Amino acid sequence: MTLLAALDALARELDGPLLRVGDVGFDAARRPWNLAIEQRPAAVATPAGLDDLRRILAAARESGTPIAVQPSGHGASGDLVGSVIVRTAAFDRLEVDLASGVVVVGSGVRWGAVVDALEGTAWAAPAGTSPVVSVAGYTLGGGHSWFSRTAGLGSDNLRAAWVLRPDGTHERIDDESDAEAMWALRGAGGVVGIVTALEIDLVPAPAQWGASLTFAMTDAASVIRAVRDLSAAAPSTLNVFTSSNRMPDAPMLPEEIRGRSFVTVRALSTDGAADALLDGVRAAGAVQREITGPTSPAAIAAALGEPTEPTAGRGASLALDTFDDALIDALVAFHQAPEQSPIMSIDLRMLGGALDAPRRPGFASLASASWLLHALVPNFPGAPSEPGDASIAGILALLAPAAAEQSVPTFLDPGQTLERCGTAADIDRLRAVRASADPDGVLHEGRLPR
């Protein structure tokens, strides 16, 4: 059956919408979260339920059309030409068990809904910094969060998953029933099937306390060194993010930060106030603004103000093995150089703690790394791309000698593959798992080229 005939038949069978090239709403439906990436699929399907998913699988198999599952459009990395994008908004199951500290989440649910459901409890979700990211995409890609030093990667908290196999079988799997599939699901995405729901451990967090310390950019090197030194003594209950910010004079930015440069250190403790642990950071420069006190993931998300609508941007992400004084000085000097103004922010996340000893076997791991870094270059309308591209190339070259052996899939840049996140043996194992689960190649290859 040809692709066109398969899509015609599928459109008649589905309860949910199927949009094809030329249909009203197709362009909006096909776009990923990062608008800098152009996706050109043959169709976008939004199944109404499990029966629709099975129909999509059958049509894909008959026509040789790969399926690319994108719950919210985050993590897009290619053009998906000739494929069918599947959105899973209808899979909205959300069941919180506070007695056992477990949540069951449908693959269409975003982290904001889980965070809101846990507000005021003694539990937290191992969620990312953005409430609009899907739980499934984040967890199946590894996922680093405010709680990762305390509870490990998001994928390490995955207890079980409900999976629709390429052959149409739908089942709940865990480490006892299918250890190889669970190992792959913890970081390598849906290589064994379409995940419809996940069972996830919550994080015990009876006393959440946060701190935000802002310094002038002139104190950047000493402040970052102090955070680096703190990492050696910080308990696993303390999670620390540091950002070097060089904000453009752009009208869409709030007036209080527009055109300003500054460094911010944010800390989150799951075990009450941790003021004393931050004394060394405070002493590293003149604190321009400080906020401390009880907090929650919802409050942190509101304070960070991450975008709630798709935007265009690019950047560079790396896990770092070492972070010595010379590299800190070089990184700060690089970001302050006039020609590096396209880089709006350089974010550093302290690793270690629970990340060094994963509780469950999985493909994703940051056990060999000490820091996770991301440099952001926004795409402003009408601005040339060449300066930003040069800045990205420059920071990658600067950091290359300190790069860890592997990163985590949710921090891969567009075009990068899972080879960046595992050993050769890991990649061979992944391909073997996929070949067994999906011999006909119904699922799109994603970041694991065939």
Which characteristics define this entry?
seven-stranded antiparallel sheet, Uridine Diphospho-n-acetylenolpyruvylglucosamine Reductase, domain 3, globular, 450 residues, 18 strands, alpha+beta, Vanillyl-alcohol Oxidase, Chain A, domain 3, Uridine Diphospho-n-acetylenolpyruvylglucosamine Reductase, domain 2, 3 domains, five-stranded antiparallel sheet
Explain the overall architecture.
By secondary structure, this protein is an alpha+beta fold. The chain has 3 domains: 3-86, Uridine Diphospho-n-acetylenolpyruvylglucosamine Reductase, domain 2; 94-204 and 423-437, Uridine Diphospho-n-acetylenolpyruvylglucosamine Reductase, domain 3 (2-Layer Sandwich); 209-411, Vanillyl-alcohol Oxidase, Chain A, domain 3 (3-Layer(aba) Sandwich). The protein has 13 helices and 18 strands. The strands form 4 sheets. Strands 15-12-14-13-17-18-16 form a 7-stranded antiparallel β-sheet. It has a 5-stranded antiparallel β-sheet with strand order 5-6-10-8-9.
